[in-house]
Design goal:
By secondary structure, the chain is an alpha+beta fold. It has one domain. About 25% of the residues lie in helices and about 20% in strands. It has 4 helices and 6 strands. Strands 1-5-4-3 form a 4-stranded mixed sheet. A two-stranded antiparallel sheet has the order 2-6. It is globular. About 20% of the residues are buried. The C terminus is likely disordered.
């Protein structure tokens, strides 16, 4: 993904959005075509995870959303450019000088109050990351899907009534 470190370095990148709606929108990725309806089951097997640091965060986060980085040639293109060679080079360089993560703009959301974190750590840590605890893990509800539809003007295919009740139970 955009800010992944080299796979051979033994470290990986965990991507976190600042809020539930931002996380849901980012899951669509660049393949989303605004002229298409999303399958009704798109969020059916997905969950929202809330990570909480186990102690006050002591890591160094490079906030790439500030103008200070423009002195090094950074522009907003870093958050949307493809392929990912340049963003990954930034991630590797900042990790090399002891940053533990990056605060970045979310590619698919123009609202500057929503942001993402790319946290570096041992590759494959996933939910076993000793720095965080999972405070909550919940299914995405029909209410959140409705809010998502309203907030992002993205529509879902119609769902038969029998499937609607199954989506809540997934």
């Amino acid at each position: 993904m955009r800010f992944d470190l080299d796979s051979g370095c033994g470290e990986g990148t965990c991507y976190i959005a600042s809020d539930d709606m931002g996380a849901m929108r980012e899951t669509l990725g660049p393949e989303y075509d605004a002229s298409d309806l999303l399958p009704a089951s798109f969020f059916g097997d997905r969950r929202i995870w809330k990570l909480v640091p186990k102690k006050p965060w002591e890591g160094r986060i490079a906030n790439l959303r500030t103008n200070w980085w423009s002195g090094f040639g950074l522009t907003n293109e870093l958050f949307s450019i493809t392929p990912y060679d340049i963003p990954q080079a930034w991630a590797r360089s900042l990790r090399k000088i002891t940053f533990d993560g990056l605060c970045v703009a979310l590619r698919h959301l123009p609202d500057p109050s929503q942001y993402g974190l790319a946290i570096f750590g041992r590759q494959g840590m996933a939910s076993a990351d000793v720095r965080f605890t999972i405070e909550d893990s919940t299914d995405i509800t029909n209410t959140e899907t409705t809010q998502f539809t309203i907030e992002f003007n993205i529509e879902f295919e119609a769902t038969p009534q029998s499937e609607q009740s199954l989506n809540v139970l997934n």
